[in-house]
């Protein structure tokens, strides 16, 4: 039997043999695919506790993670945090709480936590390191009362160690993560574990990070919502860096509303990332982002479509579905400005020609070295130390198979010199004379595109925001999404459009919904 078919058979077998989890009581509350608002109602009506919710997810992780391999660690304090949230809810039932209160969240394994968990970027080189304090976004999550459930897998070192040789979703600590929809299907990266775990109902929501498509692409390939915020809207302090001018932290969820609730909890100024967060804080609307969950949010919007060069190599079924989605957007009141062109798109799409790769190599070394120096405990304090660790432990890191040529090239750099500054200026010029010029001249609210085309290139180099929403499935079951991208600070418009599209189409299905529903074998009978 072919390996992919064998893996799919194993996945279906384990799903069918997972026992039902029950809590005795009067009503039947279904946790699978439950939204944050639904969970909060269940909390308020005494149909569910945070501890029960955590136990539900822990049970799913125990049964599904050995095959999906999307979670590296469980927080040993997760049940304690859930019990604490339950106590707070009982002691002051009338107090207004965050939507994230008592809700489990998984963090990409590049986001620091001041607890017993590791932060390793999927590599053994950082195993045992101690950060000493939470990342800025984690501090905000704890303040909101969220439960930190664990660390999600990622493509090791954001794929940067040996790009493009390392497969999407592979890391030394977790092995090869699996797409929950198509056995052997691409998971995309680097926030693959964050997307898979949400898609497979192993957690309510998760946090990923993006430098060059690493939230939008896994969301697209694993049928979840991925939200890449404007750079600086969320703090990068305490997050393993790649290219600070493009790095951003964002939500992954099963619905746009859930992604927005998580976003509301993590945005805002952070003195440890003061320059970026103070600049972006001016974009945060009074009252937060929940107010933009408008089912009529497409009405009156002007949307641009860039076809060249992305559509030339795109799957025909995805293009056909996208054309239908454009018709829906028109029917819902949008004006579509089609066949637009972005100047210098061929240069923008080539990280070598644009200078993005050169800048990334220099910035990665300098920013990573700074991050490593600030760790309270670590056996590696520089990129050079990590390269040496890999050379001393080739079997752990599959060095003979994947290598570390990008690390070595990065180590050869000498900080940000004249050519790096010119590369940064050129990238900014490409954005101003390209994407921003088209947006302003055409008076667009957003660009809309199938899949990952815009996020991987146009939106990445300028630090612009984007949302990917599930938009369908290919004949083999492989998911694809639709992406809305806009100017810096345009999150309110993007939320309106993404939410309205989602509500009009409701295309997302749980994994294996055509044969074996991944969610149907779990429920609580609750008091």
Automatic annotation (TrEMBL):
It holds the Pfam family Amidase. InterPro entries: Amidase_dom (IPR023631), AS_sf (IPR036928). Residues 1-25 form the signal peptide. SUPFAM superfamilies: Amidase signature (AS) enzymes. Keywords: Signal. Residues 53-494 form the Amidase domain. This is Amidase domain-containing protein. It comes from Hibiscus sabdariffa. The lineage of its organism: Eukaryota, Viridiplantae, Streptophyta, Embryophyta, Tracheophyta.
């Amino acid at each position: 039997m072919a390996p992919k078919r064998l893996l799919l058979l194993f996945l279906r077998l384990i799903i069918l043999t997972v026992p039902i989890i029950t809590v005795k009581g009067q009503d039947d509350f279904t946790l699978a695919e439950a939204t944050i608002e639904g969970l909060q109602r269940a909390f308020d009506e005494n149909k569910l506790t945070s501890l029960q919710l955590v136990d539900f997810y822990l049970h799913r992780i125990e049964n599904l993670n050995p095959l999906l391999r999307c979670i590296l660690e469980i927080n040993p304090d997760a049940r304690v945090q859930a019990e604490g949230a339950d106590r707070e809810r009982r002691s002051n039932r009338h107090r207004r709480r965050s939507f994230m209160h008592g809700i489990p969240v998984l963090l990409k394994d590049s986001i620091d936590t001041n607890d017993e968990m590791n932060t390793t970027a999927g590599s053994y080189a950082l195993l045992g390191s101690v950060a000493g304090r939470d990342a800025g976004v984690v501090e905000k999550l704890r303040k909101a009362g969220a439960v930190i459930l664990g660390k999600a897998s990622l493509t090791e070192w954001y794929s940067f160690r040996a790009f493009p040789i390392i497969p999407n979703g592979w890391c030394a600590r977790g092995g090869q993560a699996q797409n929950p929809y198509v056995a052997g299907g691409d998971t995309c990266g680097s926030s693959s574990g964050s997307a898979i775990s949400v898609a497979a109902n192993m957690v309510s929501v998760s946090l990923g990070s993006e430098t060059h498509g690493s939230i939008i692409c896994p969301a697209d390939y694993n049928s979840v919502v991925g939200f890449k915020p404007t750079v600086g809207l969320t703090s990068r302090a305490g997050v393993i860096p790649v290219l600070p001018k493009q790095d951003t932290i964002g939500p992954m969820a099963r619905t746009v509303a859930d992604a927005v609730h998580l976003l509301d909890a993590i945005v805002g100024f952070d003195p440890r990332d003061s320059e970026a967060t103070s600049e972006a804080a001016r974009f945060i609307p009074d009252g937060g982002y929940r107010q933009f969950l408008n089912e009529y949010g497409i009405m009156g919007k002007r949307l641009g479509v860039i076809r060249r060069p992305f559509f030339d190599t795109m799957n025909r079924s995805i293009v056909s579905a996208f054309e239908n989605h454009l018709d829906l957007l028109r029917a819902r009141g949008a004006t579509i400005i089609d066949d637009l062109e972005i100047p210098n798109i061929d240069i923008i799409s080539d990280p070598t020609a644009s200078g993005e790769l050169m800048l990334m190599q220099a910035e990665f070394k300098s920013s990573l070295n700074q991050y490593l120096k600030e760790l309270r405990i670590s056996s590696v304090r520089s990129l050079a130390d990590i390269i040496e660790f890999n050379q001393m432990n080739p079997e752990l890191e599959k060095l003979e198979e994947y290598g570390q040529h990008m690390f070595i090239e990065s180590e050869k750099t000498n900080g940000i010199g004249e050519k790096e500054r010119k590369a940064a200026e050129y990238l900014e010029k490409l954005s101003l004379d390209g994407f921003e010029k088209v947006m302003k001249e055409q008076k667009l609210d957003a660009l809309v595109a199938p899949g990952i085309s815009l996020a991987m290139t146009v939106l990445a180099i300028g630090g612009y925001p984007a949302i990917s929403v599930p938009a369908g499935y290919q004949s083999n079951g492989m998911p694809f999404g639709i992406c809305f991208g806009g100017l810096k600070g345009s999150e309110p418009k993007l939320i309106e459009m993404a939410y309205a599209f989602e509500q009009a189409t409701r295309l997302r299905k749980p994994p294996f919904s055509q044969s074996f529903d991944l969610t149907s074998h779990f429920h609580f009978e609750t008091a």
